[in-house]
Records
---
Amino acid sequence: MTFPRIVALDMDGTLIAPDGNIPEEFWPVLDEAKTKNMVIAPASGRQLATLQDMFSGRGMETFIAENGSVVWHKGEIVSTKPINDDAVAALLRTAAESETPIHPVVCNPEFAFVGANMPEHAFEEISRYYHSRRPVVSLIDAAQESTEPTIKVSFFVETDAERDGLPVAQAAPDQNIAVSSAHWVDIMSPDTNKGNALTALAATLGIDIADTAAIGDYLNDYEMLETAGTAVAMANGHDKLKAIADIVAPSNAEYGAIKQIQEWLNQ
């Protein structure tokens, strides 16, 4: 392929190794990408504040956060997609009534409302992905009274996200529903996904979408791979992504995403 000017890079299952860390081998590759004017854009279901913390001090200028609900570049949010208020309320009511242990997170562009009385294990899981949190007694009241738009509702599902979380997410059938991992379901506005976020980022930077690449492993990366000029699926990824990929990279345990970026940089 031609040298990609933007690489949208998924985090969990892609860049992040099985031990939960960004490999040290990534940092010199990131530095080389900067010198060659390749924009590396971490693209994640994680919160913007969380991504900023993860790359603190590394000079990262671009993020696609909240599964495409927020695009941030050089200190500014350049794209954000609010979710319908009625859909938010329906999701929260249905989750509260469900017998499945589901813990919702109500996401705003720069912080998230979380339940004040959730169990410790749920708090620990949610804290991994949401560093900027505001605990509240009532998520419904907090969402309705907030002056900031809700851009996403996430469900941490203690059992199985696809089996048990998706039926609850159908309380907002007109929204975009993405299973982002075995225990997480994200609900966003109908036109929100990582693919549309990549399109918005490319337009902001004046780069043709054909000159972009995307690397991912799970279903919430599907539209991103569909959109990018070059689609890279991870060997450890979902079969649906491998089916549309131009390249299948080695697994995240083998640092496949880093190797693929290095291959482009060596051109």
Note: Residues 91 and 171 are 6 Å apart (CA to CA).
---
Amino acid sequence: MFDKYFSQRRYENAHFNFTNLFMWRNIYSIKWAEEHDCLVIKAAYDGQQYMLQPFGPDEAIAPVLEAMSSFFARENLPFVIRGVEKFMVDLIEAWRPGQFNFTGDRDNFDYVYHSKDLIELKGRKYHSKKNHINSFLRSYRNYQYEPLTPEWVPHCIETQLEWCRKKGCDDDPTLQGENNAIIEVFTHWPELNLQGGLITIGGKVEGFTFGEQLNTNMAVIHVEKANPDIRGVYPVINQKFCEHAWQQLEYINREEDMGLEGLRKAKESYYPAKMIEKYIVAFK
């Protein structure tokens, strides 16, 4: 049902797919309904309730926005829509001209790269990435890249739990929530129809990643985790996964940086081809 709505038009927001909503549904209190031939999704985080943009044909957007507005009013909640793509900004403005503030949510802009760049790492700007990869290849000549097939799932869960112990997930609600979301995906791996890859060293899984095709020429990487004590394993699994799973697509969406300085620096270091802008919509 979700895929029906997400395939009706081109979406580039990394969150607009069933997997993302499913794995984060508990953390964000995801609720959904069908209204006026549209999919409507409500969420809540950090004490604020909001909705995502409606998913449906252009002619249904105005009536479904009216229904969403009525819901907010009935529940005595402020009208807030988050993660809004630029084309939807224009449709919302056309619905009630001059009544909304549209605020760019920079911390949640998605980083999109040319897949060819992530695979080939050509040029001086990727020199440090290649150094890390070469160091890894020298140190771990017995490494293997494997597709993430069902028999590897228990081993990836072990790797995730070990990562959590090293990072102190028990003392960090955000990391614990992410851990639960990842385990949820692995628990339902066959049903979700995702693509994944992993790195083994001496037969032990030291890193894994998974994602899916988002639209006709773009993949989205949902998760990438690896042993933080192994230099170079992150750029290796990034490169190998893109090469083996996504080289036929033009773009790779590696999601947002959430305003975290270290994550922003890491994502910028791969030189994105473009950013997917997202907006917060609220009445003036």
Note: The mean pLDDT is 97.
